[in-house]
Amino acid sequence: MRKALPAKYYLDHFREFLAFFRGANGRLLDIQSREFIGDFYELTEPEQCIIARAATRKYGLINRTHFNYDEIPQPQDQIDSLIADGWFGDIAEAARWDLAGMLTKADIVHCLNICGCTGFSNNEKKAALINLLFRQVAISGWPEELQIEQYLYCRFDPVIRFLLLLYFGNTKGRLNQFSMRDLGIMRTRGNASDDETRFDSKDDAQAAFFYAYGEERLAFMDVNEIIDQADEPLPLAESVISQHYAQKYCLKVAAVLLKEKPQQGLHFLQRAPGELCKEKWVREAYKDGQKEAVRAELEAIISSPSSDGLLAFAEDFYQRKFHKKRTSVVTDMLRNAARSLSLDERYNQSVEQGVMAWYKRQGISSWRTENRLWRSLFALTFWTPLFEKDTPVTEFDSRPKTLKNNTFYDVFKDEIELILTTCIDSEQLMKHVTAVAAAHYGEGNSLFLWGAGLLEPIKALLAYADFDCVVALLRVMAQDFSHCRDGFPDIMVCENGKLRFEEVKAPGDQLRRNQLVTIQKMQQCGFDVQITQVAWCRDPDQPYVVVDIETTGGNSQFHRITEVGMVKLVRGEVVDEWQSLVNPGRHIPSAITRLTGITNDMVANAPTFADLAQEIECFTEGAIFVAHNVNFDYGFIKQEFARLEQTFKRPKLCTVRESRKAHPGLPSYSLAALTAHFNIDMQQHHRALSDAKAAAQLLLLAQQSQPQRLKVQV
């Protein structure tokens, strides 16, 4: 039964939201916030409903005609009373970004047309259009057609935004998340504490607010306004949250200054917080000719780096600019790739899948790992301190606070080391991880998604890797999760009993900074990590599986499969076949029976798709999925796997498309017409294996006609 919310649910949620500030977070409030909360509780309940409704809006402007709610008596009278008491002002008090937030781009264009404004393009950015509208209004005022008296500015909007930042820790949090929680749409954590805060001081909270909303408003400011604002002192950002927003704000301001007033831009970057601002200053100052100052800054970073990422940048830049090294560390790593692999070009959109398929044909085991392996192992190993002892600030926090602040090891050092020393070998760690997974399966966390195959790569890692290397990397992640949470290699390979990790790069792919840093960390912990460069080719040993299905109807969302037939081709030869009727679990319409000959009696005792899924998975693994009108067959099979909560993904190739390319101008490209045209024997049309064999012959004809042009969809 669908959940329903009470009539004044939003008021209950707003009061719950404000109650958060009775605890430790109350000390972060400024005078305006304290006054707002106090004044709110002095209002009558209908007036509180109006304020709560307005506070749930995303922007600072509201249309009062939208506030006629049945549960609020005389809502327009309540609004008039609130206007008289100073809660709302008219549209003239609203800033450009407030109006831009409430209006769509089409609305703004309509306003400009009403104002008689000409010479603008509808393709201009929203910020440019709203600025143009405000300039026009300053000259001629608001036109009567807009009925601007309906619009009210919420004078308390800055306070609401500040409180939301304190509560959610970001600018995306909204009060409607309470409703989503109550409806069961959003999963939350239940162990929040009133004693936890996101900021250690009121000043840092104010700094975060300044930068977070300042960055959003820059798009609506002209160049001169930004230049003037850049001369103002920058608030000190102390926490991870405030530093994050400070860096975003400063980089945007610097981009404008460097274009308009380069020297002011360089000076601004020098006093801006954050590693990215420091990097930007180094690059721009070097271009400006300040080479000795740049050298001194780089040497200072190398001597005492704040992170491995900044150190990697500084060392690389120093070598290239001051020691005449012609290539970057990233370029060197790619050029010196430990291995290169020629891969069939049909995997050009799923290169990792292609590499793993190639290894499988060589009898080599591989697993897709990337970030999921290490994040899941990290979370399962340290589940108790992460999700039971790291108390969230609010129930809406998905990521543990110590991970956000990069203080996990500092706070839980003793418990982390106890876990790592208690699990004395791979077997003990696997038992620990398995027990945690069994106890907490399905519980929400921000590090990985649960799935049936979650433990498989972990089990392989612990079976083949040096245990000391695993422990070393887990400790590194605990000590500096902020810089070791992603960038892990794509696949894990076990060859001749030896484990290695590979970052797979196709032609044109770049190695990102975070990947470089993480690879270096893994190598320092003792892992064999290599870069595998892929070159595209036509692999004659690439298997193709030609598939045909029969169904109860044409829509994969509502209909089911009644028969599957598959033919496997390698080097143009049929090497295997597979066929089975399928019990669809529903009635087969008589029209379908007349077409296919498959009756309800024929499938009554046939296996279900769930019974056959593993065989179909294995038969098609590592192969190109081919069918006549491939999206039909592929879509049905993918949907059947989805019903089993499994993923089915294969490169696709369509014999209709390839036949059109290879044999243009034919009157029809249906399977029956093509088989008749090419004298291909079709024993029983609209039966799966017969049609699959016919489509296989069409594939071979297309390959012979245009051997270099087959296009595979992914």
Task: Summarize the structure in words.
The chain is α/β, with parallel strands linked by helices and 714 residues long. The chain has 4 domains: 9-182, no CATH class; 202-325, no CATH class; 339-537, no CATH class; 544-705, Ribonuclease H-like superfamily/Ribonuclease H (Nucleotidyltransferase, domain 5, 2-Layer Sandwich), CATH 3.30.420.10. The chain is 52% helix and 11% strand. A 5-stranded mixed β-sheet has the order 4-8-7-6-5. Strands 11-10-9-12-13 form a 5-stranded mixed β-sheet. A hairpin with a 2-residue loop joins strand 6 and strand 7. Helix 15 packs antiparallel against helix 16 and helix 31 (655-662) packs parallel to helix 33 (688-705). It is globular and about 85 Å long. Mean pLDDT is 90; it is low at 708-714.
Q: Can you describe this structure in just a few lines?
A:
The chain has 714 residues and is of the alpha/beta class.
Protein topology:
Blueprint: H1 9-19, H2 31-42, H3 45-56, E1 61-63, H4 75-84, E2 88-90, H5 96-102, H6 105-114, H7 126-140, E3 151-154, H8 157-168, H9 176-182, H10 202-217, H11 223-230, H12 240-260, H13 262-271, H14 275-287, H15 291-303, H16 308-322, H17 329-335, E4 339-344, H18 351-361, E5 365-368, H19 370-381, H20 383-389, H21 401-404, H22 408-422, H23 426-440, H24 455-464, H25 467-479, E6 491-495, E7 498-505, H26 513-524, E8 529-537, E9 544-551, E10 561-570, E11 573-581, H27 590-596, H28 600-603, H29 609-620, E12 624-627, H30 630-643, E13 652-654, H31 655-662, H32 671-677, H33 688-705
Parallel strand pairs: 4-8, 7-8, 9-12, 12-13
Antiparallel strand pairs: 1-3, 2-3, 5-6, 6-7, 9-10, 10-11
Helix pairs in contact: 5-7, 6-7, 8-10, 10-12, 11-12, 12-13, 14-15, 15-16, 16-26, 22-25, 23-24, 31-33
